[in-house]
Amino acid sequence: MSEQPILVLDPTGSDPHTEHQTLYTRGPATRVDILGVTAWSVSHPQLLKRLLTSPYVSKDTRRHWPAFADTVPTWPPALWISVRNMFTAYGGDHRRLRRMIAPAFSSRRIHALKPAIEQILTTLLDDLGRRPAGQITDLREHLAYPLPIGAISQIMGVPPEQRGGFRTVVDGVFDTTLTREQTTANTNSLYQSLDALIETRRADLGDDITSLLINTRDHEGDGTGLTHQELRDTLVLMISAGYETTVNAIDQGLVALLSDPNQLQHIHAGRAGWDDVVEETLRAHPAVKHLPLRVALTDIPLPHGPTIRKGDAILASYAAANRHPDWHQNPNKFDITRPSKEHLAFGHGVHFCLGAPLARLEVATALRGLFQRFPGIELAVPARELKALPSLISNGHQTLPVRLRPAA
Q1: Local structure of 21: helix, strand or coil
Q2: How far, in Å, CA of 270 to CA of 86, rounded?
Q3: Coil, strand, or helix at residue 45?
Q4: Residue 156's closest CA among 234, 269, 222, 96?
Q5: How far is CA 234 from CA 13, 47, 230, in A?
Q6: Mean pLDDT score, 384-394
Q7: How many CB atoms sit inside 10 A of residue 286's CB?
Q8: The pairing of beta strand 7-8 with beta strand 29-34
Q9: Which H/E stretch holds residue 401?
Q10: Per-residue DSSP letters for 52-66?
Q11: Between helices 356-373 and 146-156, what is the axis angle to 10°?
C-alpha cells in the first residue's frame, strides 16, 4: 500500500468541517503538516482516547521529541510546546504541578464563584439592555469576551488596568497566521504582562490563584515549590485556557441556538436544559480544534494501518474526533436532545482540563441569562457569513453580530 501524501492543515481554520471529512477518509490517524511540522493527526475518538491515556505518549516535547531543538526557534506556535507547566509535563513532573494547582479549582472554590459570575453577567446584560431596539451588537465583543475575562481575572487576581493587555496577547497565542517574528514579539509582551501581575500580587498577596502560586514558588527551596519559569508558565496556562476557550464556547453556543430556533423550543418545552446546550456545544463546536503536540515514546502500530514511530509528533484533533461518524449518529447535527453528548472538548486522561467545571458554569450562566433577558434576539447576518477566527487551534468567530430586540 502506497503511503498517503502529507495533508497540509489550513492555518486560517476557515473550513474545519471539510477538513474533518478529509481526515476521516484517510483513516484513524494520518500524517499532516501543521505550520511546517509533520505530525500524526488522530481523529478517531477511540484511538485518540487510547493514546491520551497511554504511558507511551508524552506531552513533554522538550525531553522526548528529537526535533524540539531545531523546531522551536522557527515554528510560530512554539509556545504551545516550550512552556514549562503541567500542560507540557509528563509523569512525575505532571503529577507534581497538577497537585499544586488542583486546589484552586476545587468544587468549593467554583461554587463560591457563582455569585460573582452572575453579577458580572447582570452588569453586562444591563449595559446591553440600554442599546436601542434594532441596533446591531457584536456579542463576542460585548458578552463572550468580558464575562470569562472578568471571571478569570477575579480568580487570578488580575487588576482591572491589566486585563486589556492580557486579552491582546492571549489572542496572539491562539492566532496561527502570525509569523515567527510576530509570535516572538507577542510572547515577549505576554511575559512582560505576567511579570507585572506577579509583581503586583507579591506586593499584596490575597486569596487568588496567582498569590497561591507565588507562595508555592517562594517555597522552592524545600523541593516542593515551583521554579520561576514554572510560575510564569503556569500563569500562561491558567489565563489562556481560562479565558479564550470559554469565549469560544459562549460564542459557538449562541450561534448554534440562533441558527436553529427549534433547539430553544426544546428548552421551553422541558425536553432539555441549559446543561444539555453546553454539552452539545462542546461536542459539536469544541473551543479547540487541534492541540499541539504529543510524542510517541515507542513504536505504536495503528489498527489496520501504518505505525507511529518512536519520536513522531502526535496532534490531538479534538473537533474532528467529536464529530466522527463512528461515535455519534448524525454527528454534524446540533441537537441538544441527543441521548449521548460524550465529547473530548476538555481532553481525556491525566491531562483532562482542571477548569472544566468553571467553563461549564460560565457558559450555562451566560446563555441562560442572555436568552431570558432578550427572548427576541436574532443573528444580524446568516450564520454562513460569520468569519472564523484565523486559527487552526481556536474555534470561534471573529465577530458575532446580533439584534438583541427587533426594530420597532
Answers
A1: helix
A2: 40
A3: helix
A4: 234
A5: 27, 29, 6
A6: 95
A7: 24
A8: parallel
A9: strand 401-403
A10: HT-TTEES-HHHH-T
A11: 140
